[in-house]
Amino acid sequence: MKKYILIIIIISLTLFIISGCEGPDQSNQKSITVAEQYGLAYAPVQLVKELGLLNNEDSDIKVEWKQLSNTTSIRESMLAGEVDIAFMAIPPFLIAKDKGMKWKIISGLSESPLGLMTNREYIKTLADFKDEDKIALPQPGSIQHILLSMAAQRNFKETDKFDDQLLTMNHPDAMNALLAGREVSAHFASPPYLFLESKEAGIKKILSGGEAFGGDFTFIIGVSTEEFYQQQSENYTLFLKALREAIEFIEQNPAEVSELLADNYDLSQTEMEEYLTWPGMEFTTEIKGLEEFLAFMTAEGYLEKKDYQRSELIFAEKNDLEDRENNEAEQKRGAAKNGE
Amino acid sequence: MGNKYHQRLIWITVLALIWQLTALSGIFSEMIFPGLDHIFLALIESFKDGTLVKQIIFSLSIIIQGLFLATAAALILALSSYFSESAAGLIDTLTALAHPLPGIALMPLILIWFGSGRTAILIVIIHSVLWPLILNLSTGFNSIPDIYTLIAENYRLNKLEFMFKILIPASLPYFISGLKIAWARSWRALISAEMLFGAINSLGGLGWFIFQKRVFFDLPGVFAGIIVIIVIGVTVEDFIFKKIEIRTVKKWGMLK
């Protein structure tokens, strides 16, 4: 019996030691960790990185860029406290929010054309899909999946009509499979894959993101944890400023941006510019379609909690931010005066 | 025997208790470290709506099929390398090349050649099982005491009789431990393949089940899937393999 007690003590001690190891000096350091992902819709984030916009604002700030392959792993590393700011579509954000993750939207990033592309001649509309036709998309619960469900609901009153035909694939694999034309009949693509596929003979678009959604919507949003927002509000503000600068730059000067980013995307400069200015490709901080996604996903059981206030989902908006900056400036001035 | 299960039960209880206390203590957020109550609720929920049972059957059927095919192939290859020297050279080379190669590394190729369906998962399983089985079988065949082969010659057994009456029974301990390795490796291969390849008719096996729970940010659900894998693994090890050993190699006095 003594032996057992000893071992139990050792195990519990180990557990406490492990829990004590958690993050040493997290709060006071000036550092931001940003998760990046590949895709044209993330161009402003790439621009912030390439131009070092954050360091322009504050040369002391330490920025770490983390390459993560998909939304799920980004979410997980944010939960583990390894990433402060990330970019993703609205549905994966809402799913984690609903499960209790403490995070909110910083800003919109981009709107983008999306499309369900098929390589089958007999598929002209959604109704032409046979049971054995497989549709490739990133993962269940992704924006592509939710859009497909929305279209299925609108056309057939059957949200999960295509759920048995989904194949989880990342975009590059899905594009290869679509071009190979065997396993996969359709791919819900985003740029640049959407553009590359639309240039191929025999591949056509049968449904656009807008048609599925029934209007315009924000494709990618920036998100951050409440912890980062509260504990490092200065860095938060800095990042937001840099991001807005980048978005403005792209909108006003796509040619120059294309030159800067072409290498990042392994595209020629002309291609890059063509893609950045493709109809429907918009870079804006505005957040569109949040309510619609929320309503649909709640109605169809993807989310459990209802009635989110806008303020529960989005961090204090632009005006508040400027107010806060002014307040801070005033406080500093006040402090300086007091010091005199 | 009874003592072993007794001990195991005690340890599982202790570990579960520590787990639950850690969860209740609130050191970690509930999203990172869910309590056992949440996990078992998720497990019961998944059993109730039938999804889990379907996935278990799907996974097990692929594994059994894969193990069966791989065992048959390994037997044929190991036997031919025992009887023919040139075959031995070829099989030895193939094993040396393919054995260290993880199935996951082959995924991109398999995806292109076989698509992402059931066949692909089956091939990953066979690949990860076949080579260790061949190695074990060959070692078993080659470590048979000379006296056995001499007896076979004495009795003028033909090759088939020699194989089934002497060679295979005499190397059974190696065969069984090879099968145990194969079983464990096939589970690993299966789960990772299922996670990568995505669902086919929403039937993607246990790996897919876990992946889906992960995507929907349902950590208790992830743990529920893991528990099912553990339970199946332990059951097969403790009941099926133990029973086979008791009835054969232990009864024959080849294994203590």
From TrEMBL, chain A:
Gene3D superfamilies: Periplasmic binding protein-like II. InterPro entries: SsuA/THI5. It comes from the Bacteria. It comes from Halanaerobium saccharolyticum. This is NitT/TauT family transport system substrate-binding protein. Residues 58-256 form the SsuA/THI5-like domain. Residues 319-340 are annotated as: Disordered. It holds the Pfam family NMT1.
From TrEMBL, chain B:
Keywords: Cell membrane, Membrane, Transmembrane, Transmembrane helix, Transport. It is found in: Cell membrane. It is a multi-pass membrane protein. The chain crosses the membrane at residues 9-36, 56-82, 94-114, 120-141, 162-183, 189-210, 222-241. The keyword Transmembrane applies. The keyword DNA-binding does not apply. It comes from the Bacteria. CDD domains: TM_PBP2. GO terms for cellular component: plasma membrane. Residues 52-241 form the ABC transmembrane type-1 domain. One of its GO terms (biological process) is transmembrane transport. Belongs to the binding-protein-dependent transport system permease family. PANTHER family: ABC TRANSPORTER PERMEASE PROTEIN (PTHR30151:SF16), ALKANE SULFONATE ABC TRANSPORTER-RELATED, MEMBRANE SUBUNIT (PTHR30151). This is NitT/TauT family transport system permease protein. The lineage of its organism: Bacteria, Bacillati, Bacillota, Clostridia, Halanaerobiales.
